[in-house]
Amino acid sequence: MMSFLERHLGPRAEEITSMLDVLGYDSLDFLADAAVPGSIRRGTPLELPGLPEALSEHEATARIRSLADRNQVKVQMIGQGYSETITPAVLRRNILENPGWYTSYTPYQPEISQGRLEALLNFQNAVMDLTGMDIANASMLDEATSAAEAVVMMRRANRKVKNGKVAVDSRLLPQTLRIIEGRTSTLGIDVVVADLSHGLPDEDLFGVLAAQIGSEGQVIDNTDLVEAAHARNALVAIATDPLALALLVSPGTQGADIAIGSTQRFGVPLFFGGPHAAFIAVRRGLERSLPGRLVGVSTDSSGRPAYRLSLQTREQHIRREKATSNICTAQALLAVVAGAYTVYHGPEGLRRIAEEIHDKAAYLAAGLAAGGIELAHTAFFDTVTAVVPGRADDVVAAALDKGINLRRIDDDRVGVSVGEPHTFDQLDDVLAAFGAGRSDSQQDFDLPASLLRQDEYLTHPVFHGHRSETSMMRYLRELADKDLALDRTMIPLGSCTMKLNAASEMEPISWPEFANIHPLAPRDQAQGWLELIDDLQRWLTAITGYDAVSLQPNAGSQGEYAGLQAIRDYHRDRGEGDRDIVLIPASAHGTNAASAVMAGLQVVSVATAEDGSILLDDLKDKLDKYGQRLAGIMITYPSTHGVYEETVTEVCRLVHEAGGQVYLDGANLNALVGLASPGEFGGDVSHLNLHKTFCIPHGGGGPGVGPVAVAPQLAPYLPGDAAEIDAESGADSKRVEAVSQAFFGSAGVLPISWMYIAMTGGEGLRSTAQVAVLNANYLAKKLNDFFPVLYTGPSGLVAHECILDLRPMTQSSGITAEDVCKRLIDFGFHAPTLAFPVAGTLMVEPTESEDLEELDRFIEAMAQIHAEMTDVAEGRAKAETSVLRMAPHTAEVLTADEWDREYSRASAGYPVARLRRAKYWVPVGRIDGAAGDRNFVCECPPIEAFDIEVDESAAE
Questions:
Q1: Which of 91, 164, 285, 595 has CA atoms 20 to 30 A from the CA of 427?
Q2: Which residue intervals define the domain Glycine cleavage system P-protein N-terminal in the entry (predicted)?
Q3: Which pLDDT value is given to residue 760?
């Protein structure tokens, strides 16, 4: 039987030998020794104490099954922002468990992302309709951080009140209040937390954040509050529940400027706290301040509607420290599920589900009232809070005996939250736990007419056309067929590590024993989860050489923020709070600078040398100038230029001597695992992208997981717990600021990384890094004669990725790197990373999962494109009418009755012979991005828009 490692690695043994021959090395060890500086390299044989010996796929599945069996699946009525829901099987099988959806990349290349972009546009439109707002993003990381982002957005967008405070409703969820408190204290925003039922505080306010449904379940009419806030020139955000909005008046109708919330209960499992797709929706005029991703509508080269990411997408890479947010990863896969849930059920289905939930809650309330039990509130949607003086523990225990988890608020109050799958029999068990029985008077708890919405919503045909499972299955297949994901082709994106997401790694996340555990459930019900998390923390510390790990950050950008926060708090506790400057190389990821500013630090750029490495002379100048104020430096290693910098240990030494801490960005850790450990060659803190190095799939742009790993002195400053529960963190945490609302972040996808490490083992991890380096250097060697490799190390080798310099060919031909990206679509390839970190270049990362045939297919495509560029450069074709400039080519264009282009249809559609065996047909032509931003549309076009007559001249 083949081992998992043999299945994970693309090249076979004989292919590895032939590739090494091309590079002139006798073994993978010799290649790694030549590429990785000796000053940081681990010795051979591998020594990674604490890592398991590799298990077979069958053995690992049996082991993780035993962990799952240690979790106790109860009826979850705890609520607090997490609700039991039903994931329709057609969505689970065709989205969550379908590699066509979960292996796709963020849709920065829109032509090959039309399916996932349409699915995300459905999500946006559902949120817009339900909240009554004009624009919504797709999506945010969780509800609590969305609330914090809304506060920051109100301060930034309010031009009438410059130095005011923000009033925050004390009835918001506890984790929301905790996250807001932490984010705003860092940014110097004054917060007034108050029960807004008593009116606005007597302060100068730039913003107000109110709750539509309080943490105890009360439904709140904010109409008068919004009017009063606007009269004082304050903006208003409302935290809401989108499922409740199938019944309740929308925030937009109440006059709000912003609405925030989570779509978790739209078919997304509890997942022990995440990942869940949150959102921010705004009125028109605030869209350019909106964080996260926006899907918009433009047109393609044939004049047809086409979807694309719009406006501020990836603005961190342009604005850096002036960016409005460090949000980079979304929760795209979960947003797709939530949007598809809305499509499947439609407005009638959502209303029916919402009415059934409220009816069950009213049934519960009537029984409690008939039993003489006081209710804290009589206007509620799904959550009933009962007042039971001194009896809360007894009630919770009695319900648990029936297999039901309730929320203990304090000694005297118990909360019960009703979800979609809950039954009247279960509610009878809850009533019995309170010492009450059923009652038929639930009409006494009907929602007041003033709180009910009167307007229509979800009117677009997409929310009405897919009620049968057959229709829904085919719609999802139609969307997936429009996309290029890892199940079709190599995705050679530099810095993004699009590697195999093995089926055996993915399988456990759907198991109820993992998926249906509430993050606030008693810890004895989650022993399997806690053991898995402890294993993963130990393994990651062994791999990185650090002392402790927090798995809380639910994106790489949030890991950056958590690490910088730890550095900041460390200095402050040592009485050096004036250390407020972080040095960041000019070539660094844009989120580095944005995260530093969010952490209350100031950014100073460090120049890079011609070879892409940090310019030591400039670093020394900056250390001399800012030494007393130095908090630390952020380094991406291997560098953003795709090389192992020889001077990294010297950089770390200089920064430490100046009193700073070293943040080693783990985005490129796939080139280090088993070869070198950042915690051993100078790093004090790193974030690790589990959605890159450790096989959690990208899911069209999320979920991401960005754990933060730290040296001993920073371990006390790992993220705290927003829910303030006694969770085990694996470190002596001071319970400092939380960065995500769930203590273990996006725990639901952690089994993927657990399985990967368990099946790979320590020695296998080293092999994955070595083959990643092999594949990258093979591509670099083969392509260098066509497009020179811009940066290499002293041995002439790259790390796990290489930058191809297209600028000489662009200068001679006029064909740009973007043209090359579009032409690659005709070959069935996702484009490499475009214009980062150097304009006019492509950054290519093949990963270790791609075999020699796929690498050679990419080389063949690039060689053919070089020949086409040469034709332009030598005058045999004109740039503006060339096959490159007109790419990509749709089947519709190629089969048109007339063809007057200067190249043949065959050369456009089948540029190399192997494409005749299997061909991806792009659904749209080249999209006009600039027009899309000038004429911003972020809602689903009417169906008629797709039925236009094709203007053949426009198609030219």
A1: 91
A2: 6-434, 454-721
A3: 96
